[in-house]
Amino acid sequence: MSEHAIADRSAHSRAVEAGSRLEWHRLPAEDVARRHGTSVEGGLDDQDAAGRLSRLGPNIITEGRRAGPWRLLLGQFTDFMILVLVAAAAVAAVLGEWSDSLAIVVIVVLNGLVGFGQAWRADRALAALKTLAPSKATVVRHGQARQVDAQALVPGDVVLLEAGDQVPADLRLAQAARLQVDESALTGESEAVEKNVDVLHAPGLALADRRNMAYKGTLVANGSARAVVVATGMDTELGGIARLMTETGSQQTPLQRRLAAFGQRLALAVLAVCGIVFVTGLVRGEPVIPIMLTAISLAVAAIPEALPAVVTVLLALGARRMAALNALVRRLPSVETLGSVTVICSDKTGTLTQNRMRVEEVLAGGRTWKPGEEDPTALHRQVLLAVALCNDASASESGFVGEATEVALLAVGQGGSIDVDDVRRKNPRLNHIPFDSGRKRMTTFHATGASVTGFTKGAPEVVVPRCATRLHGDGSIPIDVDAALGVAESMASRGLRVLAVAMRRHASMPAGNLEDLEAGLELLGFVGLMDPPRPEAEEAVASCRTAGITPVMITGDHPGTAMAIGRRLGIVPARPGTGTELVTGAELEALSDDELQARVTTARIYARVDPAQKIRIVRALQAQGQFVAMTGDGVNDAPALKQADVGVAMGRSGTDVARESSSLVLLDDNFATVVGAVREGRRIYDNIRKFVRYAMTGNSGEIWTIFLAPLAGLPIPLLPIHILWVNLVTDGLPGIALSGEPAEQGVMQRPPRPPKENLFGGGLWQHVLFVGLLIGGLCLALQAWALQHAPSHAQTIVFTALTLTQMAHILGVRSEVDSLWRLGLRSNRPLLGAVALTCALQLAVVYAPFAQPWFKTTALPAGELALCVAASLIVLSAVEVEKAWRRGIRRSSSVSEGR
User: Fold this and answer.
1) How many angstroms separate the CA atoms of 685 and 678, rounded?
2) Distances (CA, A) of 445 to 93, 433, 453
3) Residues near 831 by Cβ (< 8 Å), separated by ≥ 6?
4) Which of 142, 338, 456, 755 has the maximal Cβ count within 10 Å?
């Protein structure tokens, strides 16, 4: 080995160990090999490869430090609300209320186990990357090809690739024969990419544009190649994604943030009120033990321990409904989070589009024919005939099989009055010049009667300059190359992939070099293809806008294609706007974080972006206070899926890595399914707020009743057993039944709740205060009346009134604006049953002789029971008046906005 080669190898080793990265696509393959101290033909020797492996480490994706199962489990019980519930369970046990204590403990444990399961599944996301690593690779060592463990590859190795191989490392291609690589896992582009060995001089090219490179984890779809390894392990693009995933922390859902803040404020408020009750009782001369038990009972009653159970039931039922909508929930809290989403960042291919190529139009003789219109003209049929013959796809029992573009060309021919089998039988192929990514065209030769016709199709910029004439009307006319290319460019500007189609007649099968055979052509016309939008996607985008949600497209595809799809779906205006709607990966790279935060307010389409840029987009939106849902299917999407408030992976086309990183999996890969899931999420959040409104108002009524009684000169109106009973029967079944309330009308015609709004926003705390005071005031009024007319019945009257007013209240809060009469009593039968059962249980403890000693109750005469019922009707009427006032406010706002 020469001293120069040794020096080169040493320099390369130092460069790799220093973590430097070169743009290998800008260098000739021979130069890349020389910089790595190797040769394209001979490769490394075993000794050098072993030395590099020892210094640089194996070609594997390493995992960060992962929390053990016990640590994950214990972490589920550190939430402040959970700690408050544990304290409540301990207090209930001290009071001898073992059923309450056990119920709280069961709720806490079940919630902890659910959270543990979610954390455990999320931890598997990084491990799923390992499935993309091939176990073996064909490498050239000492000039001989051999199979080695893929983990033993090092920079400088020369690798041989064949169709079906998984690319074992990041490679600079040195030789390629009809090579096509499926890079969808990294770039999101659905079609296999044509590869070549040409030097690409442009700096900062997006990964999808580096046609002379192949990347670890992608799949060789066709052809063969010889390539030089330029990066292994964590230095590969795939390794960079793994590093991003370890650096991306899990996001708390909006509900988790709101419940945490709610729990902290509630605990402090309860402790303050109970302290005041205890001190006030002591000042009035109440016995220490009874007043202390009353204060502690009030503390237990004030904490809605059924809230975690109700939330869990709501989320579980929501997850079940979403499964029926083809959305599989992996993280239960994400069900609610969808209802708070303000921005949906969607991939293009397969989510907004159908993930299949389709011919949109055929241009011939100056006229455009679109599939589905009237029969094509003779000129259009000539183009369809040409693309049916100059085509490697074939017919099968289920349709056509082959490369996506060629299948689309056969399909449009078959639908345009061309019998593919018949024309192929009558015009048999004699020879062909295959497509090559360098030539960007293919030609086939067919026997057409007594002559031979060559049909050529390919990129317009390659085919059109080779044409001498163009078909027009009944004959041929000289071609204006610039004008023809202008027509093709106009079609491309609308997001179409344009193919030029030409022909040349020969007396017999021609011989000669390729340049001669594909010169002097006659241009037949152009074919424009596109991966068309899903039929339901446009309506789904419109629904997003109506609901105040901003749809954003993030794709690795070409900017022109992305913009065309965006305009057709309504993501961006049909007419050009300010020019800020589209941001390319190269433009994004030049923006600072502050500049990007300003840009995301207007940007609606991002094209040619890489994984790190996707995370930057999501973080910039989150920094603006947005709740972000992100869809994706590839390995390149996984870090952004993990960073988003709701990560949505594709079930059909998605990779395991994307699914493991997500909160939600779409079983049909459909953007409209995301919008349906958002509707369900809004319903769930509405119902959680309804339960909080109901439970906290009832608890507020209990607190005001006990707190204000001494101030009004009345004795403590309830015993600890009364408080705990009311808490048990009113928060349990009725609260869970409320979770099944149908979605309110217009749930998708209103904007998302403000991201920073807490659980008590939107007038909820005012309702809790107003109606709670009303319940407390009515109970105290009944107590004062009873002390004058039936002193022995006073506690039972307050006890019964408190239960019945809460049952009336729950019927009223089924909607924030719609009246109970409009909703109908039978629209939520489980709730109606729960209310009836609760009332029956309350009457049982009042009238059943065996229960009276336990609950210290006495049977009430009909008149006194009627007073309790009247109090409940007053509460229901007050709630209905409040809703009528809200409806008036909304109507006034709508009129003002209309003006």
Assistant:
1) 11
2) 90, 9, 6
3) 734, 737, 738, 740, 741, 810, 811, 814
4) 338
The whole-number pLDDT of residue 563 equals: 87
Contact between residue 636 and residue 238 where contact means Cβ atoms under 8 Å apart = no
555, 609 Cβ separation under 8 angstroms: yes
pLDDT at 125: 43
Q: 567-570: long-range contacts at Cβ-Cβ below 8 A with a sequence spacing of 24 or more?
A: 568/495, 568/533, 568/538, 569/352, 569/533, 569/537, 569/538, 569/541, 570/538, 570/541, 570/542, 570/545
Segments of the chain assigned to CATH 3.40.50.1000: 338-354+534-675
CB atoms within 10 A of CB 447: 15
What is the C-alpha to C-alpha distance for residues 796 and 718, in angstroms, rounded to an integer?
A: 8
Helices first, then strands: H and E counts in the chain: 34, 26
Q: Where along the chain do the CATH 1.20.1110.10 domains lie? A: 682-898
pLDDT of residue 445: 94
Task: Say if pTM beats, i.e. exceeds, 0.85.
Answer: no
Choose the weakest-confidence range: 242-251, 600-609, 835-844: 242-251
Q: Do 612 and 586 contact (CB within 8 A), yes or no?
A: no
Residue 476 contacts residue 470 (beta carbons within 8 Å): yes
Least reliable range by pLDDT among 38-52, 626-640, 784-798, 865-879: 626-640
Give every CB contact of residue 751 below 8 A, 6+ residues apart in sequence.
547, 548
Fold of the domain built from segment(s) 682-898? Calcium-transporting ATPase, transmembrane domain (1.20.1110)
- Give the DSSP H or E segment for 178: strand 170-182
Catalytic residue among 347, 637, 669, 731: 347
**What does R_g of the chain's alpha carbons equal in angstroms?**
36
pLDDT band at 263 (very low <50, low <70, confident <90, very high): low
DSSP secondary structure, 646-695, as one string: EEEEESSS--HHHHHH-SEEETT--HHHHHHHHHHHHHHHHHHHHHHHHH
Which residues lie closer than 8 Å to 557 by C-beta, 6 or more apart? 188, 189, 208, 348, 349, 607, 608
At 397, which amino acid appears?
A: E
d(CA 288, CA 368): 93
Residue 562 pLDDT level (bands cut at 50, 70, 90): confident
Q: Give the amino acid at 837.
A: L
The span from the CA of 654 to the CA of 657, in Å, is: 8
pLDDT band at 631 (very low <50, low <70, confident <90, very high): confident
| Distance separating the N- and C-terminal Cα atoms of the chain | 84
347 is catalytic: yes
Query: What's the CA gap between 738 and 667, in Å, rounded?
Result: 29
Query: Which of 171, 531, 187 has its CA nearest to residue 179?
Result: 171
Q: Is the pLDDT score of 3 beyond 50?
A: no
Q: Which residue has the tokens 């183009």?
A: 383
Q: State the average pLDDT over residues 726-745.
A: 81
> Beta partners for 429?
446
Stretch 51-73: mean pLDDT: 74
> Which residues of the chain are in CATH 3.40.1110.10 domains?
358-530
CATH code that applies to domain 338-354+534-675: 3.40.50.1000
Q: What is the pLDDT of residue 745?
A: 82
Pair 310, 691: CB distance under 8 Å: yes
The predicted model gives 55-71 an average pLDDT of 71
> What's 26-63+134-167+170-231's CATH class?
mainly beta
Task: Read off the pLDDT band of 28 (50, 70, 90).
Answer: very high
Residue 627, CB-side half-sphere exposure with 13 Å CA sphere: 24
Assigned CATH class of 358-530: alpha beta
Q: Which residues, other chains included, contact 54 with Cβ-Cβ below 8 Å and sequence gap of 6+? A: none
Mean pLDDT of all residues in the chain? 82
| Positions of CATH 2.70.150.10 in the chain | 26-63+134-167+170-231
Residue-wise pLDDT tens digits, 374-413: 888 889 999 999 999 999 988 877 778 888 888 899 999 8
